[in-house]
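Hi P.,

Sorry for the delay on this. The queue was packed all week, but I finally got your sequence through. Input first:
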Amino acid sequence: DKAHDVPLSDTLAPVLAEHIRRYPPAAVTLPWKEPGGDPVTVRLLVTTPAGGALNRTRFNESVWWPAREAAGIVAARQAGQRGTAAREHGMHRLRHTAASAWLSDGVSIAAVAAWLGDKQETVLQTYSHMMPDDTERGRRAMDLFFRPSAPDVPAAVQR
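Then the structure:
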């Protein structure tokens, strides 16, 4: 029930535009809030090959996990072994990646929470451990704050 804007980077914009050109958003009508609820039509950027809504579990098992294995991000599963069926191990990980990148670059918790549609407390609880550069960033902040200021320059002498 929340609408929120998320900044689109200059690097990502052409990639997204090309995806939209090749795979135009598909209008999908589904009961949005609950099974049997009022149908809502939305345009989806990522759909099944037939243009329907993705089933998160099926997508993770048949596309996302094999892609991670093929890229060497995770070890390949043994024949017949199922992937870990947890939300955080699926495509939802992209949300965590974005939040972590923003926070690691110093974007405020308030802004990240607004972009994710979360409360600031949720962002702190979920992502505070994903800021490995905090120690060095803290040192730099203190160095900048306590750096010697420029020496006073006497006013020009009148002649």
